Each structure stands twice: as structure tokens, then as C-alpha cells.
Amino acid sequence: MSKPNMPIILETQNLTHVFPDGTVAIKDINLQIHAGEFVIVAGANGSGKTVLLRHLNGLIRPTKGKVLLEGEPISKNIIAARKQIGLIFQDSDSQIVGQTVAEDVAFGPENLRLPPEEVNRRVKTYLEVVGLSKLAQQSPHVLSGGEKRKLAVAGVLAMQPKIIMFDEPFTGLDYPGVVQVLRQLVSLHQSGHTIILVTHELEKVLAHADRLIIIYRGKIVEDGTPEEIIGRSEQYGVRMPLGENERVDAMTWLK
Amino acid sequence: MAQIVLFHYFPRNSILHKMDGRVKLICMILFSVAISLVQSIPSFIILTASLILITLLAARLPLITLLKDMKYFSFLILIILLVNSFVIPGRPIPGFPLPGVTVEGVMTGLIASWRLVLIIMVCAVMTGTTSLITLKNVVEWYLRPIPLVPETRIATMINLTFVFIPVIFDTVSEMLSAQKARCVEGRRNPLKRIMFIAFPLLVQTFRRTEELILAMEARCYSDDRTRAVFATTAKDWLILAFTVLFLAFILFYSF
Amino acid sequence: MGESTALNLRLTVFAALFTALIIIGGYLSIPLGAVPIALADFFVMLAGLFLGKKWGLASAALYVFLGALGLPVYAGGKAGLAVLFGPTGGFLFGYMALAFVVGLIASQKKPSVLRNLTALIAGNILLYAFGIPWLKTVLNLSWEAALTAGLTPFIPGAFIKIIVAAAIAQALLPRFNKSIADNAEQPEDEEQ
Measured between CA atoms, how close is B213 to chain A, in angstroms? Predict the structure, then answer.
């Protein structure tokens, strides 16, 4: 179900990161992601998946290797790259920069110096998209966990990126929260965005993915369709969901 | 502490709420200047009456709540009254049991505390009708022409400070109740008490701040941002003109 | 984003954090005899230790500025020019001096307890050097009365705050400096 017929949008070449204390976080990651793909990156805690994600939009600089966005190294114009590659962090509380919901969504477009009318238009549009229009003037602090995650999504969408990356989007969410985020994910994918999602909770989302990548101790150890790989996930510390005989298309919390 | 943030701003649909924040700030500064200049009791009465009318009609603020908030200042007011009563030389009050209190002193003290109350009222009207976001934008606008002042940075700092306050408050109250559960109250050593509050508070807020910085970078933070738009209407100019005339009239008759 | 812009952004955000901590500190107090220990100046000291002279000063100055605008940030929810130029206003200006001097003397690179303690004591002397003459002038007090009202009751608290601030800097500064200096090289990963 991979999309090899689509152009490669994001690529890493020998991406390696060594922390100052000598720990190797990721090593020789070679990855090609096609436009419109829904990729899940799975791995146990400390496997390096968050570090990998943060390299893809240049938040962390590699020790060796590079990241290419549509064939160009992102280090050439990191702001342009970050505009194209949105990242939704695991902790949605600590990515709130606005005193109101609307102001938080406006933060990205304002950084891009868009004209005020365009900023307002985008705030309105993307609050509508995630269903938070009614809360526009509220303090983000009073939102529920699921609503905060949606706000983070709206804030990233307002920059109109092509690729959207999610770091553990289900952490700390209750059942309705997970369902809300899943709906959002599926509809973003349908509207043509490339989705890269880091998680270890495969049973909640795997059915929607085109491709599953497993990282183990900083290296890619498996890369293919979910059906091919799921049976081998447990040896890398990723819990295989729902028992041996369960089908991949049942691995979702979306009914 | 969510209430500190909301404490002074009352969302309403009044004339002053709709006013251009920049013009409103000028009017409020003019009022403060007039308050510190007036001398005669009738001028004080006119100013007080007009401020009460402004609070109730033009700003539609709950006067009683504002007056209750003034209790924080009661100590300051009391000190001003007492010190003046004893320090200013003059005639002793006939039949007053405490020696050293003078008629002139009490009068000066009363006028000084009256002034203080009026200036606090002006501040309360300004912050009660202007959201923190607008206030931040107004500050940024007035700082812009001053050379060497990084007005965007200051505006960002103001904004972030008010994003942090509810976060810190929640962290503190969570910590305090967790510590209560472990009977920290019983500890008398103030050194340890401060350590037990400050240390975990800093560790937690530092971690969150690091995340927030990454989130701001991921959303392309830039000092060169979309600027806030202000709209000055004929009504704003009319209010300004009226304020100037009214205060000039009072000051003229005050001497 | 160039390196220096990234570093600047980090310090800006941390300075805003310290301003918020100073504000919250004004609402928190620890009982100690008759005079409770307020924590606003404690966080001003930490701002100087952690952020250095420039950004420590920025953090304290923003605090004073927000209160002057009429926002209820001064201790106990007070605000406005009336407080800033009132009897205790000298202490508010003293906060700026405190943060600056602590940042100036304290060691940023290698934490040294002795140097940090010197910085904190010097900063506190300056704080009261601003606060007490101001108090005396505004209220027309004698020197004796000004010292009794503005210094004596706060000495035990000030010493406790100085010791705790130095201890915290010793424990947290190495990690803090690392996170400020190298752009996002922290070996973070995932939740529990």
C-alpha cells in the first residue's frame, strides 16, 4: 500500500545523532517518504523515534547526514522547511503560546508575516476544521486534553504545511479524545497531507497507515506495510496489538 | 491563579471596550495627570463622580467588585493617612485624645489617600476594559518609534509571562497538595519549606519552558511578525477631545 | 534561524518565565515568626543567578513595567504607579538592581558557591539601599523608624532566601546552562 508512484517528499541520508555524552541516539537512518503517505514510526521508549522526528524539521541538527525536503537540504532554509513540515508535540500543554485559542492559532501565520486579513482568515478556517470555533476567545488553559491536542493541530494547519508530524498524539487522552484525534488524522490524510506519526500504541491507529517503520536502538529495523511487519514487532519492544490472529484493519479505535 | 489573569479584565460590550486601545491609554494618562494636579475639594468631587459614571456607564464594570479589590490597598491608604496626620505641623484637633494629630495633617492625608483611590480607579477602568492581548499590542505600538527598544521581543515576553502564570499556579497548587498529603505542613524549618516549593517548581517549569521553546521554533518564531491592526474611529477622537476639554475645565476651576 | 537568534529566543522565553515566577512569588509566602517570607525577591535573585545581568534585569524590569501598566502583579495583587511611587516603590526599583548585580557578580559558567553567595549578599544590600531611603523619604520617617519598618523584620528571611537560592543554583545551573547553550541537544525522550 506504499505509494511509490508518488514523488519523494522527504528523505534522510545517513542521518546520525550522537549526544555530547557519547550516546548514539540514531544511526545511519536512510528513509524516503512519498507525498501523501501515512507513515507510522514505532519503537520502545528511548529507541530514538522522537529524536528522529525532531531532525526532520531541523529542531535538532544531525551529527552526520542530512534531511532533504523535495530534494533540497532543509539546512539551506530552515524556516521554509518548518513551514512545510508541521510538528505536533507530545505534550500539548507546553506548546501553547497564546493567551486565547484564536491567538494561539494566529502565532504561526504571524511569524510568517502574512497580512492581518489572511491571518484572521486562517484562524477562522482552521478553528472550523478542528471544531474549536466556539472556543476561539477562551483561554487555552481551560480546554480538555483532546481539545488542546486539536488546538495544536489547528496551530500547525494554519501554516498550511504539506507534511504533518505527530509525536505520541494519544498520550494522556481518554477514549473520546483518542477518537477525536483519529478522525482528525484520517481527514488530514484524505485531504492530501503526508502524515508521519510516532507512537507505541499501534492498536489505536495502525489500520489507517500505509507503512510501518520500527526503530530499535537508533536504527531502522523494519520498514514495510503494516501487514508484513506487525508479526515481528514484539522482539523490538513494541507490543503487538490484540493477539496473534487479529487483522491489521481492526487496529483502530475508530468504529 | 487563573483569577489573577482574569481578575481585572471584564469582557463586556461597552463604549470603552470597543475603543481604540491607544487612544484609551492616552485618555487614562490624562485623567491620572489631572488627578495628581487638582487641589480643591469641589474638583475632587466632580472627578470622583465622573469616574464613577465612567465605570458604570461607559465601561459597564461592576463598581462594587472593583471597590472590593481595593482592599489590597487599604493598608497603603491607612499608612498615608496616619503618617500625614502626625507629621504635618499645624493646629491640634480639639478634643482628640491622641496628641500630635493636626487638622492640617488629617486634611492632607485625606486628600492624598483620595488621590490614590482615584488613580487606582483609573487603572482599574483601563485594565478592566482592555484585554491583555490588546494591552500588549498597545505597548508594542507605543514602543515602536523608540530606537534601540526591541518592541516585538517585549510584546512576546509580556504574552509569554501571562501564558506561564496559570501554568506555574497549577504546578504550585498540585505540588502543595501532594506535599500536604505527605505532611510537609508539620515541618517548621522555613529553609526546607522554601526548598520544597522552589526546587520542584523550577525543575518542572524549566522542562516545560524547554518544550515551549522547541514548539515556538517549530512554528517559525520570528521577530519580524505580522503587526496588530488598530482602527481609530471618529468616536475615539471625540472621546479624546471631550476628555481634554473636561479635564482642562476642572483644572482651570481648581486653582 | 541563526545560532544567535535561537539563543536569544531561549533567553527571552526563560526571562518571561522568571517574570511569571516573580509575580507568583508575590502571592506565595512562608510563615516565619511574625513576618512571613514573601518569595518575589527570591525569584528575582534566581533570575539574576540563572539569566545573568542582561536578561535577569530584563525579567525584573518587565515585572515592574507590568505593574506600572496597572496589571495586578505586585505582591498581594497590587498594581499601578501609585504603588511604584508609593512607600515601597524603592524595593521595586531595587529588584532591578538586585537582578542586575547578582547576574553581574555571579559565575555563569562554573557554579561557585562562594561567588554566588557574594553576589546574592551584594544584591540584597543594594535592594535595601534602594528601598529604605525611599521609604524614609516618602513617609517622612526618621532613619531609625525606616530601618525598623523596612529592614530589621526582613533580615532572617533574606538570609534564608539567599542560602536556598545559592543551593538551588548549585543544583540546577549546570543543567540549565547546557539547555541554554546547545540548541536542543538534551537527551530527552518520551514519557515515563
Answer: 8
